[in-house]
Amino acid sequence: MCKIKSMFVAAVVVLSLCACKEKTDQQGAKAMSSLVSVDVIEVQPEDVPLSFEFSARAQGYKETEVRARVSGILLKKNYVEGAEVKEGDVLFEIDPKEYAAKLNNAKASLAQAKAQLRRAETEWARVEKLFKQRVVSEKSRDDALAELESQRAAVMMAESNVETAQLNFDYTKVTAPISGVTGMEAQSEGSLISATGLLTNITQRDPIYVIFSASESEMMSLASMVENGLIRNPENKSEIIAKVKFSNDTVYPLPGKINFINSGIDEGTGTIKLRAEFPNPKRQLWPGQFLRLVMEGLTRVNALIVPQEAIMQGANGSYVYVINEQNMVESVNIQTGLMTKEGGWIVDSGLKAGDRVIVTNLMKIRPGMTVDPHFPKNRQPVETVED
Question: Which domains does the chain have, with CATH numbers?
C-alpha cells in the first residue's frame, strides 16, 4: 500500500513539473513574440571610391570677337554663319580704295626721301674730301653731315609710313583669328564699319571647357581629409577624371580632366571656380549648355558606411540606434561626412568597427528596449575569434 502511494506521489510531482515547464515555455515564446523584429547591419571599415557631383556649364575653349581694324564700307561677307572656319580665312572685306591710295602716297614719299638721301650722301662725300684738303670750312662739313643724318631719318619715317599704310590696306580683309564655329554677323554688307566695330564671334568647341564651382566648406573638408589620411590621392593625377551628364541623366562618353582651380574664393557666392577640359570631336557639347559634372578618382579609406534610412535627426543632430550584446537598443550621436554612390552615408565620428546598427522599424523602438535582431544575408556579422 505504501509503495503504491509513493508511486502516485511521484507521478503527481512529474506531472506538476511538466506543467510548469510547459507554462514557462509558453511564457518565453510569448515574450519572444512580443519583441520588435529589426534588421541590423554590422559596420566594418572599407575603402570607398568617392564621386562628387556639381552643377556646371560648358564654355568654348577659345571665344574670340572678330572686330574691324579699320573703318569703311563693308563690301562682302565670305563665310556662312554657324559654319566652321580656319584660322586665317578671309571672313569680311572692307572697301580698300582709300587705303590703297594712302599706301601709294606713302610709297611715293618713301621714294622721294630715298632720292634726297642719295643726294645728301653724295654731298657729304664731296664736302668731306674737300675738308681734308682744307678747301671748305669745318662748318660746311658739319652742315653736310647734319643734312645726311636728317635725310636718313626722313627715309626711316617714310618706311614706317609705308608699313602703316600697308597694314591698314591689309586690314581691309578681316581674317579669322582662330579656328572654330562662327556666330551671326553683327553688321550687314553695305554698312559703314567703324574701327574696332564688332563683326562676328568665333568659338572653338574642340576641345571644350566645362566650368563648375565647389563651396568653400567642401574644398576645406576635402583638404582636411587628405591631410589626415582619410582620402587617398592616386599617385597618377590623371586618374582623377571628370565626367559630364546631360539634363536627361545620360553620360557623355568621353572623360575629361580638371586643369584649373581658381586661386581665390568668390566673395559673392563663397565658392571656388574649377575648370575641366573635354574632347568634343562630334560637337555634342555646346558652349553655354547646362550640365552636371561628376569628379571621380579619390578613395575614402577605412570608411564606416550607414544606410541613409538608418539615420535620424534629433535636437542634438544626427543619430542612429545600435544594439548591445544583450540586444538592447542604444542611441548614438554621429557625424556624417560624404555620401557614397549607392546613397549611404560615411560616418566620420560616433561609431566604431563592429557596431550593430538598426536599419528597420525605427519608429517602433526606443532606447532601452530589447529587440529581436536579424542580419540580412548580404550583411552577416563578422565572426571574431577570441584568444
Answer: 35-49+303-379 (2.40.420.20), 51-60+204-301 (2.40.30.170), 69-94+172-196 (2.40.50.100), 97-170 (1.10.287.470)
